[in-house]
Amino acid sequence: MKLGFVSAILDGWTFEEMIDTASEMGYECVEVACWPQGKAERRYAGVCHIDVDTLDEAKITYIHNYCKDKKVEISSLAYYPNTMDPDIEKRATCIAHLKKVIDASHRLGIGMVTTFVGRDQSKTVEENIALFREVWPDIIRFAEERKVKIAIENCPMLFGPDQWPGGQNLATTPAIWRQLFAIAESDYFGLNYDPSHFVWQMMDYLAPLYEFKDKIFHVHYKDIKLYPDKLREVGIMAYPLEYMAPKLPGLGDVDWAKYVSALNDIGYNGYTCIEVEDRAFESSRDRVLDSLRLSKRYIEQFVI
To answer: Closest by alpha carbon to 101, among 77, 75, 76?
Structure first.
C-alpha cells in the first residue's frame, strides 16, 4: 500500500507547492483535486491543483516530469460534485466537468478518478436509484472507453441544513452498493472506501471490506469522533455535525489497526490517502502542515 493525502486540504497552494509538500514529508502519492476554477460551494470543494480545462501535451509532460523528480505519484484525480443534482443545468455542468477529469486521468496515464455518485436530496432512495440508472451508465461507458476507474466515496454528504433531508450522495451503504453494482456491471466502477462515514451511521466498517474487496479501487484515512453526550441530547435524526466531528487518523473512533489488518486480509495493495477535515488544524498554514505530519506519523505504524 502506498501512503498519500488528498490535496484539497492545501487550498491556495500551487501544484508545485503541493507536490513539494508531499515529497518533503515523505508521502508516496497524492489524490489531486481538480475542481473547476471559481468559487467553492462548500468546504474542501473548489480546490484545483490540476486545471483539466487547460491541460495540453506540454503540461502533461511537465506534470509527469515534476512528479517523477519529486518521487510522488498521483493516485487519482479528484472531483466530488453532485452529478444527480435536481437542477438539470447544474447536473449537466457537473457531468461535463467530471468527463473532463476522466479524460485528463486517461491522458495523464493515471487511470483513476475519485468522486461521488450524487443524489437528489428531495427524492427517496428508490427514486434516486432510478435516477442513477438514467444518469450514470453514460458516464461509466465514457470511463470504460478511456480505461479509467471511477472510485465512489461513501460519504453521505449530509451534514447540515443545506443538505437535509437526504444528503447529496446516494452510494453510502452496502445495501445500496449492491443495487448500483447490479445496474452498472463494470470493472471500472467501484469504491473509494472511507471508514469514518460508517462510524457516525452506526455501521460496521470492516465487514464490507471483505464483501466488496474486488470493488475497492482507492482508500481514504479519515477519522470521526462521536460525542455520546451530544447524541443523547439530539439523537440520530439531528444534523450529523451536531453529534460528531471529522478528526485526524487516531484522534477519533476508527480502530485503525483492525482497519488496515482487514485491508491486508483482502490483499489490497493500492493507494491509501489521508483526508484532513479536522477543524482543529485549519487555523493557519502551519497547522495544516502539522496535520499532514501528525497523520503520516500515526498511520505509518500500520502501513509500510
So the answer is: 77
Q: Which three cell numbers stand for residue 12?
A: 491556495
Which domains, from first to last, does the chain contain?
2-299 (3.20.20.150)
CA pair distance 3, 220, nearest whole angstrom: 10
Residue 169 pLDDT grade (very low, low, confident, very high; cuts 50, 70, 90): very high
Residues 125-132: contacts with CB under 8 Å, at least 24 apart: 125/170, 125/176, 128/84, 128/166, 128/170, 129/170, 129/176, 129/179, 129/180, 129/183, 131/84, 132/84, 132/170, 132/180, 132/183, 132/184
Q: Where are the alpha helices (DSSP H) in 76-154?
A: 88-107, 125-145
Neighbours of 127 (CB within 10 A): 13
Please return the burial class of 25, using the count of CB atoms within 10 Å of its CB with bins 0-12, 13-18 and 19+: middle
**Is the CB of residue 146 less than 8 Å from the CB of residue 103?**
yes
Polymer length in residues for the chain? 304
Quick check: 287 and 235 in contact, CB under 8 A?
A: no
What tens digit of pLDDT does each residue of 178-208 get? 999 999 999 999 999 999 999 999 999 999 9
pTM score over 0.90 = yes
